[in-house]
Amino acid sequence: MSTSALRTAAQVLCAFLCFLLCSRCAAGRFNVIHSKYKKTNNPVLRWPAAERAEGSSVDSELSERQLYRELFMSRRNKPDVRDEQSAKLLYADAGDRIEEPDADDADDADDADDTRLARLPYDVPLDTTGKLHMYWGVDYARELVTIQVKANISASDWLAVGFSDYGEMTNADLCILWVDILGDLHFKDAWTDKDGTVRLDSQDDCRLIDAQYDRGVATVAYERHFDTCDKNDYKIEDGTTHIIYAVASGPIWTAEGINISDAFTGLQRAQLMKNPVLPPALPADVETFDITAHAVHVPSDKTTYWCHTQKLLPLKTKHHIVQFEGVIQPGNEGLVHHIEVFHCEVPVGSKVVAYNGPCHAEVLPPQLRSCKKVIGAWAMGARPLAYPAEAGLAIGGADYAPYVMIELHYNNPDERSDYVDSSGIRFYYTSELRPHDAAVIELGLEYTPKMAIPPARGRFHIRGDCVMACTMASLPASGITVFASQLHTHLSGRAVWTKHVRHGLELAELNRDDHYSPHFQEIRTLKRPVHVLPGDALITTCLFDTSDRRNVTLGGWGIQDEMCVNYVHYYPKIDLEVCKSSIDTQTLSAYFAFMHKYNLDATSPHKSVSENYGAISWTPLQGKLLQDLYDESPLSMQCNRSAGDRFPGSWNGMPQTEITTPFPTRESHCIATN
């Protein structure tokens, strides 16, 4: 062998030995640095280097939580605290000097985190297989949410959990955990761009509390503020939160630049901002009954709505339902997305036809349209819903029709055909009647094709008024108290809110969901009960997105039709059941005549409303014209009693509710501090 060849071989061997030595030092650094600060009374991080097998031991125990605190407090006098949150010890070189922290301060911070992790009352499965589960708690005083994720993943896998507006993996906000090729662990704030590429955030708002790995399960706990004042971060608000996750094989050198589409991804929905008010204690004589599916062989479709009519247990006298909760078949926690139970409003003595099948089948009996009054609802992550101590939902007695229909939404993204389900809702009831009967009023838009949404519209809103004349005619002088709300649209709904107006003065909103999903509907107790008086008006507005539709969408009962409803739960029960509006009939007829004359559309007074909407050539300009028409036109009102007839009065040509004094907006702390 030539001298040059020997020299080259020696150089390669030397480089290899240097790399191996450095790698061993780097991997050993993880243990050596942290063994100095190990604290055996804390949860420990057992995260092997990438080449170690799951569940293998490490040389020393590590409290990542304690180490982070020591770094944070040793640098607490530096000007940008948030930047220090991203500069945890795991990023430090072996030669970094870390001041010894104050022991009392460290213990206090550690105890505070232990307390928060022990108080995570809410949880939701992130996937259908049970491999990822999220727990959380909310601190309203500090405007902070604490999150813990448990994931059955490999030790070297990277994991990202975060939020986006409607579950998209693009333009999303993430907290991402990964192990690099040297075995070091990283936890960072990140976001994805419009192409799904991950970018590490310069402002790190994912504050790690604890990270552990043991026997194939990674457990990561962290916290972040509701509003971080970072344009790349998601603002956590009341209403629905779309939780996204991604898992992929590692190790990787850095999360910067990886594409989220290369990972196994998924979506879950939950209400993060739960009502912190504790429910009243159940009465001593409380009993239960379950309304469940009966061994449904769930179709292999990604989405299934399954309906089943049932007869209630016989109750000769009136009782009160005081609480209900979901009863999910073990193993199907990731399959059952939400459940609703409807009372069938049929004449006493009549029977409801038996049905057990898809809710939107063509063979669905028309009689089941009478099964529309919600008496119980559950969705993933929902806690038991308890009625206030002053009221209960009446069931039983001689004048009560004992029929209900359960509707179950199954989410089966893997299109499995082996699911069998018997989930449902458990009701708690008592013979000890409370002072008031609770009831439900429907607010929003009438179920009518008079209201339509043009095709290819990314944003189109329609409002439905419960006008002051209706509440004046129907409410008692003392008013009613609204304590819960269920917002409802069909497939194109994207946001729903209800405004409360008193003599032109806008009060605090009754309810709002800016990230509404028709696939996540639950009855939510209000954090602040709302007192509605005679003469008040309630305006329910829905935002729709028909950008993927070629034809006009009409109001109606079908799943491809649209609705805009807020079912408000209140007490004491009154005779008002429906307070909804639609565009005035004469105004709509004039609109169709205008479109025929000036747009040359084939509309005609001899055609039905549906046919006339279908005859219009929809362009962005025509969509804007219809939006303006709805915003300004007079109303036709449904101010209906429980029996279906209207309260006395003239309910056509009613003016829309006018807000003369808007509710003051809360100044953002981001503006105040910037």
> Helical stretch count?
9
Number of beta strands: 37
Q: Helix fraction? A: 10-25%
Overall pLDDT metric: 84
Amino-to-carboxy terminus distance: 70 Å
- What are the low-pLDDT stretches, counting only 5+ consecutive residues below 50? 12-46, 48-101
Question: Beta fraction of the residues?
Answer: 35-45%
Structural shape: globular
Summing up helix and strand content along with how strands pair, one would put the structural category as alpha+beta
The description of the largest β-sheet is: 12 strands, mixed
Radius of gyration: 29 Å
Give a summary of the structure in a few sentences:
With about 675 residues, the chain is of the alpha+beta class. It has nine helices and 37 strands.
How does this model look, in words?
- The protein is of the alpha+beta class.
- The protein is built from nine helices and 37 strands.
- Helix 2 (64-74) crosses helix 4.
- The chain is globular.
List the helices and strands and how they pair.
Blueprint lengths: L2 H33 L28 H11 L6 H5 L17 H16 L3 E4 L6 E8 L4 E9 L5 E7 L8 E7 L5 E8 L5 E3 L6 E8 L2 E9 L15 E8 L15 E7 L16 E6 L3 E2 L5 E9 L7 E9 L8 E9 L11 E3 L12 E9 L5 E2 L4 E5 L7 E9 L8 E2 L2 E7 L5 E10 L6 E2 L6 E7 L1 H7 L5 E10 L3 E10 L2 E2 L4 E3 L10 E9 L3 E9 L8 E2 L9 E8 L4 E8 L1 H14 L10 H6 L5 H13 L2 E7 L10 E3 L14 H5 L1
Parallel strand pairs: 20-24, 24-35
Antiparallel strand pairs: 1-2, 2-3, 3-9, 4-5, 4-10, 5-6, 6-7, 8-9, 10-11, 12-23, 13-22, 14-17, 14-21, 15-19, 15-20, 15-23, 16-18, 16-21, 24-34, 25-33, 26-32, 27-31, 27-34, 28-29, 28-30, 28-32, 35-36, 36-37
Helix pairs in contact: 2-4
